[in-house]
Amino acid sequence: MKLISNDKLCVLLFLTFTHSTSFSMPDNKSRVLEEVIVTAQKRAQSLQDVPMSVSAISGDMATEAAIVDAQDLVQYTPNVKFTASNPQYSSTMIRGFGSPPLARNIEPSVGLVIDGISYGRSTFTNDGVFDLERLEVLRGPQGTLFGKNTIAGVLNFTTKSPSFDSEGYVQVAEEDLDGRRYEAAISFPIIDDILAARLSWRKREKYLGLYNTARNNEKEEFKDESIRVHLNYFPSDDIEIQLISFTTQYEGVGNGFQHSYLTETARSTFEERDPRIEDDEFNDTRSSNSPTYSNRASDSIALKADLDIGDLLLFRNSIVSALASWARVDTPFQLDTDFSPVNSGYFHTDGPDRYTQKQLEVRFSADSLPLLGWGESIDWMFGLFAGRAESNVSQSTFLVFDGLVALAPVMAEGRGVPLPSFLGALFSQIGNIGVTPGDGEDFIIETSVHVRSETYALFGQADWHLSPSVTTSLGLRIGTESINGVQSNYSDSPVPSITNGSENYYEKGRLTEDEFSPKFAISWSPADEMTLFTNISKGFKSGGFSGPVIHTRYLRYEPEEALSAELGIKSRLFQKTLEINATAYTMQFDNLQLNVFDGTAIFTTNVEEAESWGVELDFHWLPPMQWLTVQGSLGFNETKYGSFPCGPTTWDDSDALPECGQDAPPSQDLSGKQLPYNPKISASLTPTIRFPIMPSWGIGGMFAFDMLYQGEHYLDYDLDEKTFQEATAKLNARLAIGPENKRWAVIFNAKNLTEEQERLIVLDAILQGGNYIAITHPDETQYSVDFRYNFGNLD
């Protein structure tokens, strides 16, 4: 039962937000907002000095809110949506653009950086969440300094660094559904003032609440364990060397998919195998005859070095930085082909899907006197980047003829030729009895794509301080990438229609892409603690080889480009007690890359153009009431297809538009329609109250609640009404108790008090048009209690 309706909660959020940004408050000289330092331009700067739209979330906030993954973390930032239903299906969307779920063989359009290392797969994201110092969300193209796969923005994680003072923490948590979390970190000196280390560890295990009625003995659960090692070495006053490494092992039983909608034909067919079949995606049951799993293993190691060389020619305070890194991730899985109790087969990776990357980056940063004596100074940064990446993505599908016969009524209905009821029942019974000896694997489809790429780039940026109040920035990245791909598919089925048009093919190819990504920005501070800025930037992302796909219609996709313009303000008002940052923007995409699931295969295609515009705002307020802090965000984003006359269509539309070609698949005109995964409105509001409990012992409390709103949106590119997600307004609450010195704390959390129903993914069931499966968030309130103990120097 919902405690507060969506409409009422939106009104409450708006009224509170309006009140909290009122400009008629009295002075509050006893408290000031702390300056937030970020590395959004590859150097330490105040958040207020960065001429772009950036949001920052501290690790302390993540600890207090019991946030353990990026999906919860980005809820506090406007116009950002992260989806991670399991290790294979994770994606980030910023301002409506990004690489959506199911993208197994494509670099994300939202870049991922952890401790300065860029990762080419979004599945690495949660490796940066634990022992967190700060998350920065950079919106819009960031190609100048962060690279080609940052066309929509960047998630920039910074984890905690070693200290020469011995210190750390231990944290233990109990959650609903037999969930347990353990986390610990320790910093210590190895050689005083020369070598320090920090070891971080996290382990999680949880029963996901899903029960498989077809197997009657399988409960979905996962175990996740991560270790990070961070060394800081100072051989001299001018040199700093860092070694950063982590490893993660994730083992999951099940995949989270439940039936979201069943036709009567499907329901009656499935009930013969499992009478408990149903299509309520929020009741925590599923019916799948095949065992399923979803695992992940990641490793990363990086060596960073900074050399302070002082003055060099015309440059001052010169620093040379180098970064060499290696990383890999394996993501093996197994799924039921039809997600039903009918034994028609299963598919899994042929060995683990593996992605490996090697990178080298060298940067030179310095400042100098202004050119021609104009202005005060210039900050410079130049660099070069070289990288290699290799991915091997495969899929082995095993089909059982008896099961396909049993599914014949459902498959025929999905193709628009429903069988008479008596004939459908006959096929189902024949499949149940068996028409082939044994119950083994009668047909197989082997599909794979293997891609190797090499990237080289030169980049640079100059920030010219024309006066104490005016700075202009010019940036440019020039690069080239070569991509080699091998794609193949083989099926031993004598009837292609049984395998939905599977084609036997073997294709090899090579692509060469050139990048030219400029940036221009200017900022002006008309008064202390206020900055106005504008910027224009261009982003680029290479094309590639789609797959794995069972047919040859969409083997390759073209590169995409984006042009973004922003106009914003950053301010700290009323003696630094109110911080308001706001940005208005517009973005234009050419050849937007879409990852589409057509009911049988996942492939990547291009849209000629797409566009978005909107506004986003963050605020942080210390009101006159000493016990109260308020922070929040508000975003509005309108994202639409441009010209897209041959877009993917829903299952019940079997016609191809004439302009799409004679052999084109079924299509619909999506020109001017909204893109999916894009809530038009996103908002958050977090009031925090601090109060004494036992003042004589220095023990106090903290109470906070989050109001998190996401507007309605679709969850598939064909804009099928069955994939429509209604707006959600979640309410979270937490209570923390501990001493003022933060030696220990007990934190009670309750998430989703409004019991909102949110679906993360909705897909057409394979070969079963009109039937759907989904992965959802729990719609019941989730409770947890954390105990944290901090040791060492807490100053």
UniProtKB/TrEMBL annotation:
SUPFAM superfamilies hit by this protein: Porins
Taxonomic superkingdom: Bacteria
Q: Where is this region: Disordered?
A: 268-295
In which compartments does the protein localize? Cell outer membrane
Q: Which residues form the TonB-dependent receptor plug domain?
A: 47-154
Q: Its membrane topology, per UniProt?
A: Multi-pass membrane protein
Q: Which residues form the TonB-dependent receptor-like beta-barrel domain?
A: 251-753
- Establish whether keyword Transport is in the entry: yes
Stated family: Belongs to the TonB-dependent receptor family.
Protein name, as recorded: TonB-dependent receptor
Q: Which UniProt keywords apply?
A: Cell outer membrane, Ion transport, Iron, Iron transport, Membrane, Receptor, TonB box, Transmembrane, Transmembrane beta strand, Transport
Query: Where is there biased composition of kind Polar residues?
Result: 285-295
